């Protein structure tokens, strides 16, 4: 049985508590939140009467000596929370984003390496079944080498609150999910980006609700992104609508359940090569799915001697760097080389 402390009891924490309960063999011995009553409410909701509840993380870590720390705090508190957990000898799983700056992310990677502990990030959307199936098909070579990826993200949510006041809201708050999926599909690291943001006349956001970006990957693959959070009518899914072009064929995904692929045959029909439909592979028994649960399963398995989770900090920083590269490009109007 592993001992764990969970920090941050806002709305997102419920998904964490539920996933932890599903996995089992994890004893939540401490719950931390600046609002102690909110922490007590979560303890009551999940029958954690013996957990130490406090607003002070250092005190809880000292009292409970946990093996694991689950970080569900606001981004501004992330670096201090993760650093405290690693310093206390914990393996740490964090909500996204990994950090507020690349320098903070680099520091957390260094701290985890020096502590000999795992620090991973809940990049939960790469664990949805459709993304796992698409990645499996690409790895099979059925459409050849991926040469370009293109996605559209168009929604019009009225969140209210902090998002509508954020700068670079689309890139900073949402696009990392799409960028991370592109990195998974391409199986490469982004090396450069050119991006632009704009504010349509109907926008209810402060800045950055609409954006476009062109990414270059290290192997020459190109990824184009078009998106808006104030595009009423005919919405895409939250996962975007995708076209993935390979050297031998193409895959389309509507962001929901419809995945189609075609590959070139040996013949030609006039101007064009003949193509044949490709069956999309089913999930494999080894595939992790389930959003938070999938990430948590990988993380827990790693802390128990399994393989390194795919969202470990040293990997997730590559997706975070795409976000900051796009923001830097949008601010300067220049093509930006992406460094990790």
TrEMBL record:
SUPFAM superfamilies: Glyceraldehyde-3-phosphate dehydrogenase-like, C-terminal domain, NAD(P)-binding Rossmann-fold domains. Residues 3-121 form the Gfo/Idh/MocA-like oxidoreductase N-terminal domain. Coiled coil: none annotated. Residues 131-251 form the GFO/IDH/MocA-like oxidoreductase domain. InterPro entries: Gfo/Idh/MocA-like_OxRdtase_N, Gfo/Idh/MocA_Oxidoreductases, GFO_IDH_MocA-like_dom, NAD(P)-bd_dom_sf. GO terms for molecular function: nucleotide binding. This is Gfo/Idh/MocA family oxidoreductase. It comes from Phyllobacterium salinisoli.
């Amino acid at each position: 049985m592993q001992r764990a402390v969970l920090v941050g009891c806002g709305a997102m924490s419920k998904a964490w508590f539920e996933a932890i309960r599903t996995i089992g063999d994890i004893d939540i011995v401490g719950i931390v939140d600046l609002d102690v009553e909110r922490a007590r409410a979560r303890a009551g909701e999940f029958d954690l009467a013996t957990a130490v509840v406090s607003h002070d993380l250092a005190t809880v870590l000292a009292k409970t000596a946990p093996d694991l720390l689950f970080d569900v705090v606001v981004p501004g508190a992330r670096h201090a929370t993760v650093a405290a957990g690693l310093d206390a000898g914990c393996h740490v799983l964090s909500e996204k984003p990994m950090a507020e700056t690349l320098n903070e992310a680099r520091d957390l990677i260094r701290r985890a390496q020096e502590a000999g502990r795992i620090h991973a990030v809940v990049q939960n959307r790469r664990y949805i079944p459709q993304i796992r199936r698409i990645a499996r098909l690409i790895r099979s070579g059925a459409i050849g080498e991926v040469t370009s990826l293109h996605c559209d993200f168009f929604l019009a949510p009225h969140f209210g609150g902090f998002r509508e006041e954020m700068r670079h809201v689309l890139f900073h708050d949402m696009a990392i999910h799409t960028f991370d999926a592109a990195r998974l599909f391409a199986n490469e690291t982004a090396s450069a980006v050119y991006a632009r943001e704009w504010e349509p006349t109907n926008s209810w956001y402060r800045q950055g609700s609409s954006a476009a970006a062109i990414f270059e990957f290290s192997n020459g693959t190109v990824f184009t992104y078009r998106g808006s959070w104030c595009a009423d009518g005919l919405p895409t899914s939250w996962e975007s609508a995708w076209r993935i072009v390979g050297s031998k064929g193409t895959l389309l995904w509507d962001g929901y359940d419809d995945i189609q692929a075609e590959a070139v045959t040996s013949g030609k029909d006039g101007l064009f090569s003949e193509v044949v439909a490709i069956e999309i592979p089913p999930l494999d028994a080894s595939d992790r799915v389930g959003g938070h649960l999938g990430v948590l399963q990988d993380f827990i398995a790693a802390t128990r001697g399994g393989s390194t989770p795919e969202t470990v900090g040293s990997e997730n920083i590559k997706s975070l760097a795409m976000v900051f590269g796009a923001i830097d490009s949008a601010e300067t109007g220049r093509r930006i080389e992406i460094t990790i």
